[in-house]
Structure formats: C-alpha cells, structure tokens
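REVIEWER CHECKLIST
Item 1: Sequence provided? yes
Item 2: Single chain? yes
Item 3: Sequence as submitted:
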Amino acid sequence: MKSDPPFQNKIALVTGSGRGIGRAIALHFAQHGADVVINFFRNREPAEETAAQVETLGRQALVVKANLGDLDDLQRLFDEAEMAFGGLDIFVHNAASGFNRPVMEQRPKGWDWSMNINARPLLFGAQRAAPLMAARGGGHIVAITSPGARRVLPDYVSVGASKAALEAVTRYLAIELAPKNIVVNAVSPGMVLTEALQHFDVIRKDQDLIERATSLTPAGRLVTPKDVAEVVSFLCSPAAEMIRGQVIVVDGGYTLPVPGVVDSETKIRTLGEMNQDRSFISEENTK
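Item 4: Structure as written out by the authors:
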C-alpha cells in the first residue's frame, strides 16, 4: 500500500523563498505534501514562479510580500498564513540581508538592518508561530545560519554577528518551546551555489575563488540548495525528534581541515608524521 508523503497536509512558511535556498526548501516541502507560504520583499516575479511550481506539484501556495525588518509586516505575514490555511506546522527563517563592509567601515544603519532582518524575525516570528503550531499538536522551526556566526569571513561583521544571535535564539527557543512539542534547530550551509554569492566583493574580484573552494571541500563539490533543503526537511521529521537547539553544518567538510595539516587534496598527514613532530619537540624541550 502506498504511504502518504511525509508532510502531507502540513503548512510550511519559508521566509525569503522566492529564490535560492529558500525556493529549494519551499519546493522540497511541496514535493513531499506540504502547502507553502512563500515570502518575498523586493522581487515578486521569482516568488510567483516558486508558487507556480508549488501548484504544479498539486499543493497550495500563498505569496506574501513582507519586510521582515518591520515587526508589523512580520505580524501580517503570519496573519495571512493563518487566514489562508488555518494554522502552521513548519516555520523556516531563511531570509537574510546585510551590508558587507570591513569592521572600521561598518555603519549603525547596516548593523541594525542585518540584526532586524536576520535575527529578530526568528524570535518574534516564533512568538507568532508557536500558538498556531501548538493548536495543531506541535511543530518545527528551523533557522538558516552561516559559518560566519563562528568563523571570520571578509567584510561579514554585521551579518556574522546577526547569525551568531540567530543561533543563540535557536537554543533558547528549543528549550522554552519544547513543552509545546515544538522542535527548534538551525542549519549552517557552507558556500552554496546561488546568485547570492555575487553580493560578495571577494567573489566578484576573484573569479577563481569558487574553484579553489571546491578543491578544498572533502566532498569534492560545493553545497547546493537541494542539499540544504533535504537537511531542513530531515529536521522537521519524526526521525529528528531528539535533535534540539543544534546547529547542523552542511558544508561537505569544508570547515573541518586545519590549515597546514590537511592539504588542498584533503590528504591528512599520517599519524607517524605527526608523532615525529611531537618527538622532535619533546627532544628539543629536554635539552
């Protein structure tokens, strides 16, 4: 007997879902039975295209323009989702924005913009989502973060700090919403092949950077939006019930090697070589 899709009749709201990672997440949920709320702020056409693809898959789609940095707009996003579908099961905060500048050139406006769009909507969106989820027996919240929350990336201070805040909020939500049967986690993709990469000066100025990043990734390729969508989907499944408040890194192993210990071909120095180094140091220290 054919089983129902894993997200049959679930309602998923994905912020920033007109393009890139957000679109892949929205379509993945639709492919597996969910109806989807598609959010955008500036570009309606890609959002409408995503909605059309959702409907082609036999699911319902609601397109909502909302500036997540405006708390009234954020509230309206959830209001429209509730009016259209009567509830909510999954909230994925994917939308992100920021002004990429060095530390000494960052401005208060850029700092506030990054915080208000990247971090704040998770907290106040969760406040609005939680009662809708609890009324349906529980739900799932997933935040899309970045390696820049913990590592230093060029010109990334305001976005990196906002992503660090996002991860902290994820942990607090995971604890406080657990009694409502709401599971909260975050996903941290590495370099993902989307048009958003072109917003980084370092990539525009260095056309070989993506190729070098690929060569330094143990998996042999960069992350795709589909890779991220599949991990988000897993975190919203019963199989991930006991994963709470965690940041799941999806980068093909890119951030694992230690520079100077693992080379560009991901060949780890042998244990013997490492032991020889330690023996040499020990001998030097005993002289």
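Item 5: Key structural point noted by reviewer: The longest helix spans residues 108-134.
Item 6: Recommendation: ____
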